[in-house]
Design brief:
166 residues, alpha/beta, five-stranded mixed β-sheet, two-stranded antiparallel ribbon, 4 helices, 7 strands, 24% helix, globular, Thioredoxin-like_sf
């Protein structure tokens, strides 16, 4: 597995540069999203996970993607408004991103190599494919779009620091 690409500069949904290195030492869930998908309600469940674990060095990075049946046709401003108004999303959202093909974002290229899908495929099959990246970047778990975020809790908790006894 290649080294985690922490040197990447991402573009936030409001078109601002953001260094992936800002998340060093944090547990990450990275997900390709869409506003007109049958799995769109997962925004609410992802936000619940973020609220539950954000104080423990946990972040969710949402990347809207229009590569699957055109289910994310809106622009960044409309996507952001939809996510905050409809699902009260407060986790980090980034600009529309390609996850497959010749123009796939380097972060997704790394994720697909680090955690191949069924039968070793590296292609992302659909919206709301989720990747859980460990704090040390040595473990990446891939979750299918049909895996609801609550089903990821045990895996997330294994990656978070153990609570200190007082």
């Amino acid at each position: 597995m290649q080294t985690f690409p922490s040197e990447l500069i991402l573009e936030t949904i409001s078109h601002q540069p953001f260094s992936l290195a800002s998340y060093d030492d944090d547990v990450l869930v990275i997900v390709n999203t869409a506003s007109e998908c049958g799995f769109t309600s997962q925004y609410q469940q992802l936000e619940a996970l973020y609220q539950r674990y954000q104080t423990q060095g946990f972040h969710i990075l949402g990347f809207p993607c229009n590569q699957f049946a055109g289910q994310e046709p809106a622009g960044n401003a409309q996507i952001q408004q939809f996510c905050t108004t409809t699902y009260q999303v407060s986790f980090d959202l980034f600009s529309k991103t390609e996850v497959n093909g010749a123009h796939a974002h380097p972060l997704f290229e790394w994720l697909k190599e680090a955690a191949p899908g069924v039968m070793g495929t590296q292609r992302i099959k659909w919206n709301f494919t989720k990747f859980l990246v460990s704090r040390d970047r040595q473990r990446v778990h891939r979750f299918a779009p049909t895996t609801v975020p609550e089903q990821m809790i045990a895996n997330i908790e294994l990656e978070l620091p153990s609570p200190q006894n007082d």
